[in-house]
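Shipment paperwork, digital attachment
Item: protein structure file
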Amino acid sequence: MIRKVACLIICAVSVSGIALANDIYKWTDENGSVHYGDRPSGDASEERMLISSKSTNPNKVQARVQSRHENYATAQEEKTEAAKAARIAEEDQLAQAKVNAQKCETYKARLQKFVTSRRLYKQDENGERVYLDEEQTQAARERVENRVQEYCNS
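Attachment content:
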């Protein structure tokens, strides 16, 4: 018998702590501030608002959470791939810059020879020297100067 009474008391205390009211009251005070409460205030502007709610579907909530996690993971993978692509592009640019620097030095040295040499020549198929005339020499210098500009200014 004592146990039954104790159980009833515990149930009554626990139920009294839970808000059972579905009614919310809204009113505006003399300063124009809007107030909400679960008990009537007696104010003339008071209106009763009916609140209804539905229980949450845990499966839908879990599906939304899972979708958000998947979207976040996809976004992180895309960021990682973009960073990797940027790093590869930067490495390619550095490698190309190194190649250009080497070509720059080669063409600068060749231009220096062209400027300081009295006469320019090329070798024919027999390995013999064929000297360039003034026009050919000037054209060869211009080609080398263009290469110097191309590789040294990039």
